[in-house]
Design brief:
The chain is built from 6 helices and 4 strands. It has about 130 residues and is of the alpha+beta class. The longest helix is centred in the C-terminal third of the chain and has 23 residues.
Length: about 130
């Protein structure tokens, strides 16, 4: 009986970990939904950053205020703002802890996606689960 409960908890946790927001490049919804390259912002890291950064004067709102259940378009003129947020996260969380490494990796990948979107003259779609 205990074994079954433990397996169930692990499966529920796995579902929670993979939820989040996918960032993809496109000019249209259809193009973004078919994009091969994307960056995943998992729900656990999103919640951690919300807890750590809300109300501390950091301007991470563009990233942290994204609704994890809806689609948001980050238009080309706002992409540089997202790059600034990524750089700030990379600098602030460049530590050795597991969560810090996850944040740094996510921010670096998102920054690269943003730079690619600017070169391609496309928008970034934040697609919630």
């Amino acid at each position: 009986m205990i074994k079954i409960i433990i397996i169930t908890v692990i499966r529920i946790w796995d579902v929670i970990v993979i939820c989040g927001i996918d960032f993809a490049i496109g000019v249209t919804d259809k193009e973004a939904s078919k994009a091969e390259k994307y960056v995943h912002f998992n729900e656990r890291i999103h919640a951690y950053l919300l807890k750590k950064e809300k109300g501390y004067g950091n301007d991470f709102n563009l990233l942290l205020n994204l609704d994890p259940y809806l689609q948001t378009i980050i238009y080309r003129d706002k992409i540089p703002d997202l790059i600034v947020i990524c750089v700030a996260l990379i600098n602030k969380y460049n530590l050795s802890g597991e969560k810090e490494q996850e944040i740094t990796t996510f921010a670096q990948e998102l920054k690269e996606l943003c730079e690619f979107a600017i070169k391609q003259k496309k928008h970034i779609y934040a697609i919630g689960d």
